Amino acid sequence: QVQLVESGGGLVQAGGSLRLSCAVSGRTSIYDMGWFRQAPGKEREFVAAIHWNGGTTYYADSVKGRFTISRDNAKNTVYLQMNSLKPEETAVYYCAGRLPIMALSTVSGDYNYWGQGTQVTVSS
User: Fold this and answer.
1) How far apart are CA 3 and CA 27, in angstroms?
2) Contact between residue 71 and residue 50 where contact means Cβ atoms under 8 Å apart
3) Residue 74 — φ and ψ, nearest 5°?
4) Each residue of 63-122: pLDDT tens digit?
5) Among 43, 71, 98, 107, who pairs with 111 as Cys (CB 3.0-4.6 Å)?
6) CA-to-CA distance for 95 and 5, rounded, in angstroms?
7) Pick from 7, 39, 11: nearest CA to 21
């Protein structure tokens, strides 16, 4: 079984930064990876995605220019660097993986593996 474990969440002031990590364990292979977030009472929304070789990335418009997704395949780890955080971005952040099929996906239902999530709280 492939397992994804997020870490790095916590409490940060508005305008601050956090770096989330997603450690992949188990039967690792080639996966496209994505980050999603879900705030209380809201639908899970796409944040960022990265191709298995790191050559292609895609970001939600709301985070473009502030967030950076990256990966270190040798360490089986995916990162999400979040800068200039806003209070409305308080949410549980999830790491997800899928076998690469055609283009990167922004749809949560297209991803096969999910972590347990890590809480990010941005205070005013």
Assistant:
1) 8
2) yes
3) -65, -30
4) 999 999 999 988 889 999 999 999 999 999 999 999 887 789 999 999 999 999 999 999
5) 98
6) 8
7) 7
